[in-house]
Amino acid sequence: MALELRQSLKLSQQLVMTPQLQQAIKLLQLSRIELLETVQQELLENPFLEESAQEATPEQACQDAAPVGQERDAVTERDMLKSADWEDYIGDFASTTRQMNPRETEIPEDGLSFEARLTSSHSLEGHLEWQLRLSCATPRELEIGDAIIGNLGSSGYLQATAEELAAMTSATVDEVEAVLYKVQRLDPVGVAARTPQECLLLQLELYKMDTDPILVGLVREHLEDLEKKRYKPLARKFKISLEELREYLEVIQGLDPMPGASFGSGEPSYVSPDVFVYKLGDEWVVLLNEEGLPRLELSTAYGELPSRSEKERDYLQEKMRSAQWLMKSLYQRQRTLFKVAESVVKYQREFFEHGVTQLKPLILKDIAEDIGMHESTVSRITTSKYMATPHGTFELKFFFNSALELDDGTQVGSESVKALIKRHISAEDVKAPLSDERIAEILKETLHVNIARRTVAKYRMALDIPSSSKRREMF
């Protein structure tokens, strides 16, 4: 069959992801801290954006969305700029009253965040290097010591062999071992150990407790038995009573198996609630957290220029469109978050009244149908967003959980079942802990829920609770 070229017309529809639409979608899934950073960056880059110092009406938000690609004379454009009072474009969702005005004068320190007033934490490497340089070490020893300290893990353990360190520093293994001996006796005690046994033995040595052969033997050879609580065989082997073994165990538990963990290098992660939920009378009130979020408006500074070239006019119009779209996207984000939070409170009212044990099954589709939006929009707006409730601060994703069938045909949320499992385990007898099978039986008797033993085990592991054999205490 011969091939030929021909032209044809085809009419079709497709969704085009414009840069503005991509920005709006991105704003939906940003956390509160990320949103503040994005807004501050836009304030720096866009000359048409500025922070508002006054209150205004939110009804003008839609009026400023008119096309700006058309030619306007100076009077029309100036009127448009002056009418774009957006500083109260999310005022209906504000958690603070409009009567709250900032103080005219502030102490300079009051303008700083709490984190900015704190000194930076010391790192493990810096702490050890400082001690090593105060120990009258030779330049050669300092070089080897720096190599040792540079190969420590986050828990303080040495992650390189003596041979590897010798090759790094062009030294002998004996020289490395000599410097390693000094580093291991710096603060924190037991740092630069290669195994947990070596770490604990170093601490016993420096605390003058290494003269007891039973204590040394337990640390050197039976840490695994102690971890698995094999107490009776150990008591028979060392010919001691369980009470004496308990005293040895208390000494070992007082040691630090991870001496470098207190010098964590990671920065702390702070959670700022996006939504507050309060009870006012018999109703639950949803308030958005607007603290720290700048109220934006369009700047009028560029509307007073006497004349502009075509290139300048195109640039200013593009920046104006960008500023208007950002303000509309922020308004839509806050409006969507408010609607989703209200819907969550409506569906999970029992949780807000009584706690986690009353959390109901909920999926994204339920909220999407309730507020008339797509599931993907609900998924994005609930990502990295937190709600402050009377029972604690929870991520919005927490309120969405799967369902378990009850005997009467109703359903219960999986998070409620997890809370009940945790409650039963916390109230158990430590000498006879509840097995997964027994917990499943208790839930069937009290909650009338059809749950298997393996499901209980899965939920227990999700709660980071060990098995019954590891929870059992012999003493």
UniProtKB/TrEMBL annotation:
Domain RNA polymerase sigma factor 54 core-binding intervals: 114-302
Pfam family, one: Sigma54_DBD
Sample GO molecular function, one term: DNA-binding transcription activator activity
Record keyword Signal present: no
BP term (GO), one: DNA-templated transcription initiation
Region of interest (Disordered), residue spans: 51-72
Keywords annotated in UniProt: DNA-binding, DNA-directed RNA polymerase, Nucleotidyltransferase, Sigma factor, Transcription, Transcription regulation, Transferase
GO cellular component entries: DNA-directed RNA polymerase complex
Domain RNA polymerase sigma factor 54 DNA-binding positions: 314-472
Keyword Transcription: yes
Family: Belongs to the sigma-54 factor family.
Protein name: Putative RNA polymerase, sigma 54 subunit, RpoN
Species of origin: Megalodesulfovibrio gigas (strain ATCC 19364 / DSM 1382 / NCIMB 9332 / VKM B-1759)
